[in-house]
Design a protein that fits this description.
single chain; alpha/beta; Rossmann fold; Dihydrodipicolinate Reductase, domain 2; Alpha-Beta Plaits; 11-stranded mixed beta sheet; binds 1,4-dihydronicotinamide adenine dinucleotide; binds the ligand N[C@@H](CC=O)C(=O)O; binds sodium ion; oxidoreductase; methionine biosynthesis
């Protein structure tokens, strides 16, 4: 049997601790599958004294992951710290500089610097593997960068954040509050260290940016993503969606349009009878539409220690099975130098259906005024429903819920802003895009 593959694990939190435990428990079967043993020879985390229930005997401890990357007796750095800057980035850069393969689950880092890191790895014939960075345990990166080679991809979309899907599911099914669901997602190890990244959509944007580069062969451009999170989704929206035959999901969508590549992350209404609408809890789903294969939908665990560690382990195993000089899988599916510049399609040109919920003053002529503003902007309505009077006796209000036929983002923005200027709207209008799989 070949020499053991020596790995150094930086970060022993939710994912790192699961990975160490799994490798320890499955040493023999891994050695058989990979044709060589996988040995953890070094680890680094913030707190050496914390009891993680791990057997770290014979493993060298480093307080500083960068020192580990530069000096430890390892072939692979596994970075499970997180964050686009700081220790995670410095450790990955140091590892590549030193000629070590890298496995990371860090989508924030890849969304920020994936192209540079991919180029650095390729220059040295190293593997930069990051299956866990998108949709946790689901093998979407492997599918995109290997299995779909030769396909022209027209759209990639999906539920890519377990925390948000968990929150939306429990709010809908159990009527729980947003805050309680988020706390539970944190307790279960699904959320990011800063959960705003989850609920405001940044984490989905990081993942989408990586998927866009793989799908369309372009540079990663996370800053160009239209971004809306789920923090202003209310029980009222969830109920209204359900009455109309939809469920609300936080989707990341990247699609080729005449104007360029459209990238957007926002709460989305998906028809109740579609597979993606039925994906609940921490489960993720990624749909890839391509010309040779057709439509592919991958569904599975999107977050959590073991599910994520499974993807990390798969990446490590790929390195164990590879042989020096045969590292041919480019990190972003094609040589980093051949990636095209990202050409952004403007969000205002986005076409689709819209759900619009308005609270309006309950007075004569308001419905007619709303209908006029929609017509002024060439928006055709699929349905308009007026809900019972609310507000106070002195200032009664009612809720209007509209679903539009396909229109443009610009038309909807203009219509809503005209209605706001008309002066009968109370509070902030809610606008949710509809996606038809
Ligand atoms: N938790 C999940 O379900 C998933 C997480 N990820 C990604 O995996 C990575 C790790 O996530 P978690 O395990 O959830 O995070 P975590 O917060 O549970 O663990 C982070 C670990 O990094 C260590 N660390 C932080 N700063 C350090 C420093 N300066 N030096 C040395 N160690 C340091 C901490 O001590 C801790 O052991 C992140 O990039 C995250 O986005 C990806 C997919 C799923
Ligand atoms: N916080 C992320 C973890 C996995 O990427 C999520 O909830 O999906
Ligand atoms: Na994955």
């Amino acid at each position: 049997m070949a020499d053991a593959l020596k790995i150094g694990v930086a970060g022993l939190g939710t994912v790192g601790a699961s990975l160490v435990r799994i490798i320890h428990d499955r040493q023999e079967s891994l050695a058989v599958s990979c044709g060589r043993a996988i040995e953890i020879t070094a680890v680094s985390a913030r707190n050496r004294d914390k009891d993680r229930g791990l057997d770290l005997s014979g493993v060298t401890w480093f307080d500083d992951p960068v020192t580990m990357a530069k000096t430890a007796d390892i072939d692979v750095l596994v970075e499970l710290i997180g964050g686009a800057e700081g220790a995670a980035r410095a450790a990955v850069e140091a590892a590549l500089e030193r000629g070590l393969h890298v496995v990371t689950a860090n989508k924030a880092l890849l969304a920020d610097s994936g192209v540079e890191l991919a180029a650095a790895a390729e220059e040295k014939g190293l593997l930069l593997n990051f299956e866990a960075a998108v949709a946790g345990g689901i093998p979407v990166i492997k599918a995109m960068r290997e299995s779909l080679t030769g396909n022209t991809i027209s759209r990639v979309y999906g539920i890519m954040n377990g925390t948000c899907n968990y929150i939306l599911t429990r709010m809908e099914k159990e009527g729980l509050s947003f805050e309680d669901c988020l706390k539970e997602a944190q307790r279960l190890g699904y959320a990011e260290a800063d959960p705003t990244f989850d609920i405001e959509g940044n984490d989905t944007a990081h993942k989408l940016a990586i998927m866009t580069a793989l799908a369309f062969g372009c540079e990663i451009s996370c800053d160009d993503i239209y971004l809306e999170g789920i923090s202003n989704i209310t029980q009222e929206d969830i109920r209204a969606a359900s009455e109309l035959g939809y469920r609300i999901k936080l989707l990341g969508v990247a699609q080729r349009t005449e104007g360029g590549i459209e990238q957007r992350v926002h709460p989305t209404m998906v028809p109740h009878d579609t597979v993606i609408a039925q994906v609940d809890g921490v489960t993720n789903a990624v749909a890839i539409e391509s010309d040779i294969l057709g439509d592919l939908l991958m569904v599975g665990p999107g977050a959590g220690g073991d599910a994520t560690a499974s993807a990390v382990l798969g990446d490590v195993a790929d390195i164990a099975k590879s042989r020096p000089g045969t590292q041919t899988v480019a990190a972003l599916g094609r040589p980093a130098k051949s990636l095209e510049p990202y050409r952004r399609a403007r969000m205002r040109s986005h076409e689709g259906g819209y759900f619009i919920r308005l609270r309006v003053a309950d007075r004569i002529g308001v419905i007619a005024a709303i209908a006029r503003r929609m017509a002024d902007n060439q928006i055709s309505l699929e349905s308009i429903v007026q809900h019972s009077t609310n507000g106070s006796d002195e200032a009664p209000t009612k809720t209007i819920i509209m679903v539009t036929h396909a229109t443009t983002e610009l038309s909807v923005r203009n219509a809503v802003s005209s209605m706001e200027s008309d002066g009968y709207i109370v509070g902030k209008p809610q606008v949710i895009r509809i996606e038809k799989p």
